[in-house]
């Protein structure tokens, strides 16, 4: 039996479009039909742009008929709803931006559009990307396609679930402390977090400016490499982007991993790790060793400090970044008697509980008398964490670990226990603090049939090696070919 069009990988669909096997309109309609069929249960999308998508698909078909080509010409993709899209509602999963329509488009989205993307819609997210389960959305929780009673991970849970349920060929997400890699692990797809500065953050609504990075969620590593090649590169609108040239990532995947040194950090294989997660990750490391990689034990001694450091630095940056949502210039505005009441009421009614919690914590650590004791100290320890990685990468080429301590937990299980929720990001946060790159690839399932992710971490701008190793592992195992 032949595959439905929505089941194809991005690169397979692009090749078929080039051959004329079907049109971009037919491919897009297949995805829109799939969304209509499935998303009522999964809730991956906040906005579906069906009319726009079909118009863009028709334009792609017209371009191809005239002999034009582009890396994503006619490929239907989704975008996390924290990325600005001109003329298309951008809510950040928050009621405070329920009716906000940006006047411009984020650079990463613009580059996808210039490469021929068809925009299917905007995906659900924890409010302002603050969360690990997509239960903090101001609209509705997203469900995991493998088990609708469980979370898809967060904060890019809508993007992860959309790809896993085959309602998008791939999707953009954002990763501040694991928000691309965690949904990828929980949903059984590939999730790539590029190095800080590799992809422009212009048009990404900021949560933690020194931590945020736009990433991709895809069906396989080749698709992730293709997308990174389109969105990466310096941008005059973002002074933090790196001037380094962008390698042809998708053309470098065929190189093998013989002689590659892969580090296993003692601090990531700890008590409390779900036994099935530990077993699956260890088996994945054995596969890489069997492919010729050398496995080396290493130490990242400041790992235990990463979680508290993150929740000081990230919340401090969130407090500053979210000050702009004041009910005056855009977004929700309360009908209050005076300007001070309007500030308070707009923010009090517009923000959800988790956003308020993080704003208050961040404001506290930045306040007089506490700045040196908390925020400044956190930045100093962050430097130690970064130095741990830099030292490790003098000994090894990549580092392997679990993505999360467990598989996807049940909806509502941790929603009233923020500290338990924060522990979901235990193995992903350190990489954001260090500004380096990482990827989650499917490496097995637990006894409940829930996906498990292998995390590979690379040095700054080490995406080419990271993708090569992930692709070699993927091709040697069956996990990427199983779908919910």
Describe the protein's architecture and organization.
This protein is α/β, with parallel strands linked by helices and 484 residues long. It has a domain at 5-254: Alpha-Beta Complex (Amidase signature (AS) enzymes). It has helices spanning 10-19, 24-42, 50-65, 107-114, 157-164, 181-187, 221-231, 275-290, 306-321, 339-350, 353-366, 371-392, 418-422, 429-434, 463-475; strands at 45-48, 76-80, 118-123, 170-175, 190-193, 213-218, 261-265, 294-298, 398-402, 437-445, 451-458. Strands 1-3-2-4-6-5-10-11-9-7-8 form an eleven-stranded mixed sheet, with helices on both faces. Helix 4 links the parallel strand 2 and strand 3 (118-123). Helix 5 (157-164) runs parallel beside helix 6 and helix 9 packs across helix 11. The mean pLDDT is 97.
